[in-house]
Amino acid sequence: MERRGATVTGFACAKCGREYAPGEVALTCGDCGAEGILDVLYDYDEIAREFSRADLERSRENSHWRYLPLLPVGSEETLPVLRTGWTPLYHAEGVLGLPHLYVKDDSMNPTASLKDRATSVAMARAVEEGVSAVAAASTGNAGCSLAGFAAAQGLPCYIFVPANAPAPKVAQLLVLGATVFAVDGSYDDAFNLASEAIATFGWYNRSCAVNPYLVEGKKTVAHEICEQLDYDVPDKVFVPVGDGCIMSGVYKGFAEFERLGFTEKVPELIGVQAEGCDPIRRAFDGSCELVPCEADTCADSIACGHPRNWRKAVKGVRASGGRLTAVGDDAILDGMARLAKSTGVFGEPAGVTAFAGLVQAVREGSVTPDDTVVVLMTGSGLKDTESAMRAAGEAVSVGRSLEDVERAIRERAEI
Amino acid sequence: MERRGATVTGFACAKCGREYAPGEVALTCGDCGAEGILDVLYDYDEIAREFSRADLERSRENSHWRYLPLLPVGSEETLPVLRTGWTPLYHAEGVLGLPHLYVKDDSMNPTASLKDRATSVAMARAVEEGVSAVAAASTGNAGCSLAGFAAAQGLPCYIFVPANAPAPKVAQLLVLGATVFAVDGSYDDAFNLASEAIATFGWYNRSCAVNPYLVEGKKTVAHEICEQLDYDVPDKVFVPVGDGCIMSGVYKGFAEFERLGFTEKVPELIGVQAEGCDPIRRAFDGSCELVPCEADTCADSIACGHPRNWRKAVKGVRASGGRLTAVGDDAILDGMARLAKSTGVFGEPAGVTAFAGLVQAVREGSVTPDDTVVVLMTGSGLKDTESAMRAAGEAVSVGRSLEDVERAIRERAEI
């Protein structure tokens, strides 16, 4: 029997709460404009009638399409082929003194980051809608992810980057067949030109800032954590936070499984930003208004000085009883090495920021060995070997004799 | 019920054919010395009694441990946790004009290369044998793979590299917690010192040149191809060839499934070397003697001037009715971009060498649209962004106006 995605029953503005019927609104809220990012609505009673834990137990679907009944896409026919999601959840028993610590390794996605979850849903929508091309402004994981999925789908892909974007990242986009426009200006200039071009040419917009379907892809990481822990929801989940989309998705995923009766609670969600770029944390702790900032952190994938999905993120964290925190670049680089050395999971700086936040929380005593904790690792360390070089120690220089090796081992043992 | 690995019934020398009972020999053949790499033997009649296609159909094991009954490891208890194998096989329909082309993306392994298959079996053995540490000489994927698995297992890991090894690769080893010895000399010096230290300190040796169990891990990629094609064995499988271990494993995997009656044939195996380093191809085409060479190719992961497992590889290719071929660096870089653009699979140079060989074969007419072809892609393009920059085209420089974008698109359409 052909499996089908979820029927979208409407949209709700994340700012003013106004609801829309399907087709009533194009992308963002009619009242709030660009500020009013929409949330996708479903009829969960309807979904619960046709989708159960038993279905998942039987499922041999080796990707996040195992949650198709909760995703806003049509039939299986039009799903992208690149295998996305259903990534490993490793039990990092005893790491940081925590017997119940788990690491979700989302670098094991087709373009090596969690962004693929969002892109896969966007591509499914784009194909259903019969668009001529897909587009985004991005120098990082979102751009690479879109380029990869567009290549697999045979759709033209246009990526807008600032002219000073790093050559290796641009090279990856080009190798994956994207047309890359190097815009003479800042990232904001690239973003604005991308928006204009997308509107003019009718391309599909892969931007969490306007497209409500992207968060829907990201929520599957929470579904997977539930299923992989046999529906025994952890006490705390640590999540890196940049523009707020991942946190929005993580909250929604946990809330949906609770709503369907698959689980009994939503875990405490702890969002971790980089100290050099923490406007969502400041909005959460203070005025509840967002004050954009200049980003200054090595964690480039979450260096988002003007986050768009901060309202959804803040709402999710609050509803979960969690909090937002921030860690410095030194803690992030230290976290990169500690996570890799203790689990074999090698993440980029943004990818390990949640782990760095956990290290801090353990030190402060807000996480204890009684807690069951999941850390979300969002992108491969291979994406940023510069930072790996900063985080790494030194090789031991030796001559060619065994005595050299013996001496070096002895010296290290004495340290 | 606890699942168990296969019982090793003996070993056979790949050079002279002499057989040994388990325990009778330490690592290589007593007669042939270092030249006599061993092949692991099993009782396939025994295995066939307890392992069937129906078992696989029922299996929800999301890794290559689904083939545990064919692997020389003990119980499930001691298996490494990093999720290895069961990587996607993508139908690249119509690419290169071939309706029946499939790409096996083995970059989706824990350290982003096929080497993880071999490491996972080696680590399982190391843990069973209760070793104090693991070690290897490597500047590349094998070293990173061993460091990652050792980190996850909490075992010390010693890697020997030549002093001039590239800093980013050394950084990855260090971040993953390996002790890296930078040996004042060449790769051969590092290899020799590693062998001496391993023998002296009793570390576990992760080298295909001496340890017969590593090829056993690599054979699972062939098992997966069979299962993913519903046991309808392809006509031809293209495999990149460096030291010969992958080809040895691929042949063994296909031969085993035929022996068990799961499939009806072994496919034609086409090994592809880099022109700048093709001693196995020359041995195959000519004298059947190996003449080592200086390696000169961008495909560093198969730049192996003195391959150790060439005999097993040549034997496998011959038994399959296949052949060995070679492609130049330009073809490899072109293959990197063509594969990425047409499928979204972004590989390092060695990883795409088999695809470059297929491009050549299609041009020569030795592969036609009637053929069902599988191409093995062995490592992530993120491991070598330098080469990606050489393979990539150029970004389109534009100002900040829509007219710039329109003009650029028009100009590209005219090309």
Task: Give an account of the 3D structure.
The structure is a homodimer of 415-residue chains. By secondary structure, chain A is α/β, with parallel strands linked by helices. Among the domains of chain A are: 202 residues, Rossmann fold (3-Layer(aba) Sandwich); 71 residues, Rossmann fold (3-Layer(aba) Sandwich), CATH 3.40.50.1100. Chain A is built from 15 helices and 14 strands. Chain A has a 6-stranded mixed β-sheet. In chain A, strands 8-7-6-9 form a 4-stranded parallel β-sheet, with helices on both faces. In chain A, helix 12 packs across helix 13 and helix 12 crosses helix 14. Chain A is globular and about 75 Å long. At the A-B interface, helix 4, helix 5, strand 8, helix 6 and helix 12 of A face helix 4, helix 5, strand 8, helix 6 and helix 12 of B. Strand 8 of chain A pairs parallel with strand 14 of chain B.
State the main characteristics.
homodimer; 415 residues; Rossmann fold; six-stranded mixed sheet; 14 strands; 39% helix
The CATH top-level class label of the domain at 89-112 and 214-391 in chain A:
Alpha Beta
- The secondary-structure class of chain A comes to alpha/beta
Individual helix count of chain A: 15
Q: Which pair of chains has the greatest number of interface residues, and how are they split between the two chains?
A: A-B, 79 and 78 residues
Main sheet record of chain A: 6 strands, mixed
Strand content of chain A is: 5-15%
